Amino acid sequence: MNKNLFSLEFVHLEDLLFHETCDFKRTVKLAEEIKKDGHLKNPVLVASINMEESEKSSRSVGSRCPHPEPPRPVDVHPFMASMSNHELLPGNPAKDGTQQQPNHKTGGKLLVLDGVNRVSALRLLNIPDVLVQMVDYEDEKVKLFSWNHLIFNAPKEEIIDKIRNLNLEVSFCPLNWGEEALKHERAISYFLFRDSIGFVVSDGMNHTNHTNGDITPEEKVKNLHQLIATYSSRSEIFYLDSDNHFLSIFEHFKNSSAVNLIPRFDKKEILNLVQKGILLPFGVTRFIVPNRFLGLEVSCLVLSAQTPLSEKNLFLKELLAYRIKTKKAKFYQESVTLFNE
């Protein structure tokens, strides 16, 4: 791989592994935007990982996604016309919560930390390459948090009934005990509703394979897929970080119904799940990476070109040098909020 000052480089999509599913509706929208604009903005965040090529890591479960073919003109709209094409896209869960890695013919060793929807959009457009920012997964500065889901227009009784239909336990739990409850091995998530009533959702004892009442990571992820599906298919979701004061959130978003607080996974757990071919639902993990590079737009002509990666990375080196020379690159040490994403 080509190394440079910014750890930016072009790679093949087939060399990427997912740790989460894509948001199909968001992916289709991105594909349309990319096709219209003719470029991809913001590098995909990836980490190089040590992972043996095995049947577990490359198995095809719950989907029939073909290996990426050479780029050719593709109209995105047929994907919008029929949601049955949903199964053509990698990284989507089957009805039982299982899913497949997007590159089932190769043992990719670049784990996508942020950018699964962009990668999936490029696949819909049959674009073979993507610009990535490489990070050190073992770096202590690379932190992993969870997003929380602010759910709109979903009545409390409806949410609870759907969860119970999954044979999951729903137990009353005050907000001040919510974070502590999430630390329990069987806890899946914690719901706080607009009326300040909170419930912890946990796996029923009949679903466990352990005598001590704990559940396996596979079961926990499967339950999380099914749980999120109870509201993601019909309700709008806004992602919140863990620093939000949840009760005040309801005052700012009048049509919001509930907040789903999701337990944190650690980086080792993510690797173990990837090794087993198990993906988390979209909108759960939130990787915090220092020195994130944004705003570097790359033409789809470059991404689609049938030229070696070495030549594309030489072009990238010249592009970065030009951006720096013309003072187009700026470093912000403080946190920033973007309003053009």
- Helix and strand string, N-terminal first? EEHEEHHEHEEEHEHEEHEHEHEEHH
Largest sheet: 6 strands, antiparallel
Question: Which regions contain 5 or more consecutive residues with pLDDT less than 50?
Answer: 53-90, 93-99, 103-108, 206-211
By DSSP, the count of extended strands is 15
Domains (count):
2
Secondary structure topology:
Layout: E1 8-12, E2 16-17, H1 24-37, E3 39-41, E4 44-48, H2 55-58, H3 77-81, E5 110-114, H4 116-124, E6 129-135, E7 143-146, E8 148-152, H5 156-164, E9 168-172, H6 175-182, E10 187-193, E11 198-203, H7 217-232, E12 237-240, H8 246-252, E13 256-261, H9 267-275, E14 285-288, E15 297-299, H10 300-304, H11 309-325
Structural overview:
There is one protein chain. It contains eleven helices and 15 strands. It is elongated, with a radius of gyration of 21 Å. The protein is an alpha+beta fold. Helix 1 packs across helix 4. The strands form four sheets. A six-stranded antiparallel beta sheet has the order 9-11-10-13-8-12, sandwiched between helices. Strands 1-6-4-5-2 form a five-stranded mixed beta sheet. Helices cover 30% and strands 21% of the residues. The relative contact order is 0.21.
Features:
single chain, 341 residues, alpha+beta, Conserved hypothetical protein from pyrococcus furiosus pfu- 392566-001, ParB domain, Conserved hypothetical protein from pyrococcus furiosus pfu- 392566-001, domain 2, 2 domains, 6-stranded antiparallel beta sheet, 5-stranded mixed beta sheet, 15 strands, 21% strand
